[in-house]
């Protein structure tokens, strides 16, 4: 295959005419095929963030506890007692649509590598998933493959999958979202970075051999799908979690020595991006001899090896006198180990193969002159207030319908396919608290971890939706008693070349930034996934709902003080926060009236902070025995979830609020929590002193949820309605 | 009691097992890499859970042929005590140290959930802290835990009382065709079995993951406490 390199081939590789002209200027000649390949992947949306960078820079990234923010493989925060948590969330959306099992599995594998490459042992996985209309066979096929893929990979590597979220909406029919998050643990003085140093130092390749899989995967992920999407299956990589497990153990064993100068996983754009980024960050040149690269297939070209996205590979710069120490460790774990090059002082990446120079690119302009776009953006129009709505269903009928609806039904069918206990540190398993709680072995510390986003809010009002996603994540951590520390974001949007999509992106970032600043909750890592659109059979494009998924992490200094959401017997149930009855974009509106309209509930960040800080303080003082934040479905759904978690019932009092019952019980007003306490009077008095609204709404006991009208629903009946959805859907 | 935990490539519950053993013995167990061959001074060999060799070929099939297994066979012949959990149970059946086999779960999916086990026999080092018929809760996490054996083996296991644990409802009721209490479909609801000399025990669920109130309970602790008492020197 001898291809002529010109603007038309560049376009095939995803570069515009202007971008290609810039390549020719930098090179001072027509680039070789391999060079064009390197430029096209490094300048792809996926690797260069060319549409989003301008806006990402506006997010707050600093706090006294932040050790490394964006720019490294993952974010690093100080959690105390000498430890650091290292975490990031990343999308694998496009591959998961084309090939659900492998797409999801390699998504998990990729994010694990981002974390252990920094010296951390991965201790928890989470995943934020969005699927299309559950009624279509294709959606069920995607769910089945994605869940098996996440489990197949995570279970085998022995990292517990402890949480996550799932939403359904027809906007994801042609474009499901698979956002995988990993949290790792390291000594805070043993963090490994990717900046190469030391001219002459050996560049070492470890892990799986390189094959022809995933070539141009990063480019594929930077374009929208058309009717030929399935023809792109060969660009999806294939994962091997067994090799990943060996790679984790071998890397951590090597990291306990002093052999490593720099290390980086080979993720999107494979050897190209790892070599370019390591040398670029270190301000050195790098020379690679591809004849030394361990290869899975014969006769691979330089172009194929540089662009392959074969999984489970790492690139390291070692101290020259430690290479044999390192080799022995990788031989013990039966992994390939090869010295494939060295650092130079040329400032270029030079790629040699079979005695020929296949690429010779100056690194500075490759990075500095990468395109960056200030794309036109239209300001989203926020919907008019909802106005009066009728309530065709009684409260109890609406509740039963809602707890069994796709977005609120029990996820146990999914969670029960993920190993959530391996490691022996899982204090709260999925569903037992608002955030997963994982203990740090041999310390009193535990991490609280959650993922959150409400895409229907983001669609109606991206700015409020962006703020709400951050606020809900903060609230979920707070509801366990944890101190929220930092955020990783996974920004999933449609085609940024459309002003209305870019407008969603800009507004969502603005809302997120406001919330992160108000809550002292910096963004320390993240990932952007654009072009999440699929052309429908009639030719019109379908964009996903804007989905800025937030992964968040907090710390409990004393794990014994963590609370879950199981309602205990004989407690006063108190509602914290103000209720105005916001039904716009609510689950009630959608499930009961079939409407998706109105504005999302407003987010009052000062109230979020005030109410949350008060609740956390009450939890840590021991006054609160159970806590649950209010979100999808509102107050009565939250009560029902606490009842279902324990089987202990609750008798609710009449609201006496001047708000219509459906708005009071199902409105999705923010900044609210439900707590179980022994003494409601004293609790409410302390709340009043703190300027926090609080009111008794019920007493726990028995096995029934008793509504103010006297209507009784047994916990068992709620559970039956709640648990039916997934098994019924997936055994059709 | 001196315990050794054998680590194969792909083993992933060795740390959980170490926590449980440390809790009852007060000291660290010895981690033995599968290429090592020294079990000198060891009272209990533990084959922990995980995906040895990625579960490729069959679960446990390749680990059953790794270098350490020669030493483990000889340890067994000399009357040594061996506990195999999950993948460790699969390795014990693949290596012939215990009879039968573990098939894909009946629903063909990985299962990660709590289950309840009924203690079937109490005169063994693994079970003597319980009363016969006691029921305890324990997590399970496996794709291939569906125990099976040919009829004559089953007759022998049942006849000689070599079934240690059965999957049961919380009230102790055992019903093999009930997916709620016997989630992986094991024949006769068998969750764990013993060798003839009752010194080798293989089981699918993970008692080592329920030995701390913080993690939800201490239901798994009696197994480890019992081993320490039985193997005291």
Automatic annotation (TrEMBL), chain A:
<dbReference type="GO" id="GO:0000287">
    <property type="term" value="F:magnesium ion binding"/>
</dbReference>
<keyword id="KW-0067">ATP-binding</keyword>
<comment type="subunit">
    <text>Monomer. Part of the FGAM synthase complex composed of 1 PurL, 1 PurQ and 2 PurS subunits.</text>
</comment>
<feature type="binding site">
    <location>
        <position position="265"/>
    </location>
    <ligand>
        <name>Mg(2+) 2</name>
    </ligand>
</feature>
<feature type="domain" description="PurM-like N-terminal">
    <location>
        <begin position="433"/>
        <end position="554"/>
    </location>
</feature>
<dbReference type="GO" id="GO:0006189">
    <property type="term" value="P:'de novo' IMP biosynthetic process"/>
</dbReference>
<feature type="domain" description="PurM-like C-terminal">
    <location>
        <begin position="568"/>
        <end position="698"/>
    </location>
</feature>
<dbReference type="InterPro" id="IPR010074">
    <property type="entry name" value="PRibForGlyAmidine_synth_PurL"/>
</dbReference>
<feature type="domain" description="PurM-like C-terminal">
    <location>
        <begin position="199"/>
        <end position="353"/>
    </location>
</feature>
<dbReference type="GO" id="GO:0005737">
    <property type="term" value="C:cytoplasm"/>
</dbReference>
<protein>
    <recommendedName>
        <fullName>Phosphoribosylformylglycinamidine synthase subunit PurL</fullName>
        <ecNumber>6.3.5.3</ecNumber>
    </recommendedName>
</protein>
<feature type="binding site">
    <location>
        <position position="489"/>
    </location>
    <ligand>
        <name>ATP</name>
    </ligand>
</feature>
<feature type="binding site">
    <location>
        <position position="237"/>
    </location>
    <ligand>
        <name>substrate</name>
    </ligand>
</feature>
<keyword id="KW-0658">Purine biosynthesis</keyword>
<dbReference type="InterPro" id="IPR010918">
    <property type="entry name" value="PurM-like_C_dom"/>
</dbReference>
<dbReference type="InterPro" id="IPR016188">
    <property type="entry name" value="PurM-like_N"/>
</dbReference>
<feature type="domain" description="PurM-like N-terminal">
    <location>
        <begin position="71"/>
        <end position="185"/>
    </location>
</feature>
<comment type="function">
    <text>Part of the phosphoribosylformylglycinamidine synthase complex involved in the purines biosynthetic pathway. Catalyzes the ATP-dependent conversion of formylglycinamide ribonucleotide (FGAR) and glutamine to yield formylglycinamidine ribonucleotide (FGAM) and glutamate. The FGAM synthase complex is composed of three subunits. PurQ produces an ammonia molecule by converting glutamine to glutamate. PurL transfers the ammonia molecule to FGAR to form FGAM in an ATP-dependent manner.</text>
</comment>
<feature type="binding site">
    <location>
        <position position="526"/>
    </location>
    <ligand>
        <name>ATP</name>
    </ligand>
</feature>
<feature type="binding site">
    <location>
        <position position="90"/>
    </location>
    <ligand>
        <name>Mg(2+) 1</name>
    </ligand>
</feature>
<dbReference type="InterPro" id="IPR036921">
    <property type="entry name" value="PurM-like_N_sf"/>
</dbReference>
<dbReference type="Pfam" id="PF00586">
    <property type="entry name" value="AIRS"/>
</dbReference>
Automatic annotation (TrEMBL), chain B:
<protein>
    <recommendedName>
        <fullName>Phosphoribosylformylglycinamidine synthase subunit PurQ</fullName>
        <ecNumber>6.3.5.3</ecNumber>
        <ecNumber>3.5.1.2</ecNumber>
    </recommendedName>
</protein>
<dbReference type="InterPro" id="IPR029062">
    <property type="entry name" value="Class_I_gatase-like"/>
</dbReference>
<keyword id="KW-0963">Cytoplasm</keyword>
<dbReference type="GO" id="GO:0005524">
    <property type="term" value="F:ATP binding"/>
</dbReference>
<dbReference type="InterPro" id="IPR010075">
    <property type="entry name" value="PRibForGlyAmidine_synth_PurQ"/>
</dbReference>
<keyword id="KW-0378">Hydrolase</keyword>
<feature type="active site">
    <location>
        <position position="208"/>
    </location>
</feature>
<comment type="function">
    <text>Part of the phosphoribosylformylglycinamidine synthase complex involved in the purines biosynthetic pathway. Catalyzes the ATP-dependent conversion of formylglycinamide ribonucleotide (FGAR) and glutamine to yield formylglycinamidine ribonucleotide (FGAM) and glutamate. The FGAM synthase complex is composed of three subunits. PurQ produces an ammonia molecule by converting glutamine to glutamate. PurL transfers the ammonia molecule to FGAR to form FGAM in an ATP-dependent manner.</text>
</comment>
<comment type="subunit">
    <text>Part of the FGAM synthase complex composed of 1 PurL, 1 PurQ and 2 PurS subunits.</text>
</comment>
<dbReference type="GO" id="GO:0004642">
    <property type="term" value="F:phosphoribosylformylglycinamidine synthase activity"/>
</dbReference>
<dbReference type="Pfam" id="PF13507">
    <property type="entry name" value="GATase_5"/>
</dbReference>
<keyword id="KW-0315">Glutamine amidotransferase</keyword>
<dbReference type="GO" id="GO:0006189">
    <property type="term" value="P:'de novo' IMP biosynthetic process"/>
</dbReference>
<keyword id="KW-0658">Purine biosynthesis</keyword>
<dbReference type="GO" id="GO:0005737">
    <property type="term" value="C:cytoplasm"/>
</dbReference>
<keyword id="KW-0436">Ligase</keyword>
<keyword id="KW-0547">Nucleotide-binding</keyword>
<feature type="active site">
    <location>
        <position position="206"/>
    </location>
</feature>
<keyword id="KW-0067">ATP-binding</keyword>
<comment type="pathway">
    <text>Purine metabolism; IMP biosynthesis via de novo pathway; 5-amino-1-(5-phospho-D-ribosyl)imidazole from N(2)-formyl-N(1)-(5-phospho-D-ribosyl)glycinamide: step 1/2.</text>
</comment>
<dbReference type="GO" id="GO:0004359">
    <property type="term" value="F:glutaminase activity"/>
</dbReference>
<feature type="active site" description="Nucleophile">
    <location>
        <position position="86"/>
    </location>
</feature>
